[in-house]
Amino acid sequence: MTLRKVLSGLLKANGYVSGGALAKGAGVSRNTIWKAVEQLRADGYQIEAAPRRGYKLISSPDCLRDYEVSLHLKTVDLGKPIHCLDRVDSTNQFARQEARQGAPHGTLVVAEEQTAGRGRLGRTWTSWPGASLCFSLVLRPNGVAPTDAPQLTHVAALAVARALRNDLGIDARLKWPNDVVVDGRKLCGILVEMSCELDLIHYVILGIGINVHRPSGDLLEGGLAGKAAVLDEFVGAPVKRALLLGAILASLEQCYIDWLNKGFEEIRREVKLLSSTLGRHVEVAAPDGPVAGVAVDIDSRGALVVEEPAGEFRKIYAGDVTA
Length: 323
Known about the structure:
The chain has ten helices and 14 strands. It is α+β, with helices and mostly antiparallel strands. The longest helix is centred in the last third of the chain and has 22 residues. The N and C termini lie far apart (49 Å).
């Protein structure tokens, strides 16, 4: 709490701020302020100190520490509480363990690195240390039927697209069922996992992974890193991940509330408007075999509707658009 208040005071000052002013704002002693400044410096913040002038924030790292993340939260529930991890096998797995132990709705798990991140259908989601924004949320959608839970993938994808479009000016589009793309290249993937009974959802784990920075050095030699779309290159400048996370969570909370209160129809309408899948010929790898035709709709359950060459309409609830 003290680190967050001190960092907030330094950011708001836009110049020098006295230790006394920081102490008053944080409700602590000046000695505590000195210790907090030293901790921030150790965490990579460049802070200048000058006699009779105080402290001045020169630069800040692109970090995902709890005090930095909480500083940019504008939500009521999402991101409260926060678990910020340096390294984890999977944020979804960590969040699931927390949910099983009673973690409240809105619990956030964010990590600098995932060693065993997963995407849909058991695929691996690669997240390079310090280069990705990978996080998971514990959601408890009371009153929602398990059959409606897959709609959350579209709710989350729309929230990410809105944040990218409104906050960064990026022409983000939605590729059915769970990708956010820019210029046809995948930028973000979404994974929804659920624990439920026949008519009751215990919890939902919503995982989101975004490629933010281009990794450097040896990581580029693997080939995959060089092909992936990264947010920095679309923005034209380095993106601070904590700021991005705050924007996405604010967008997601609004979309989530709208979904709970108004149902899926308004969300579906906007998803269709931003879809990069609808209106074109697609080939879909579905569980019961490949499907080819023109993608014509996303139905009220989030299924992709494909018109096959013979004129028949197929609803696909799970699968991958491969072409």
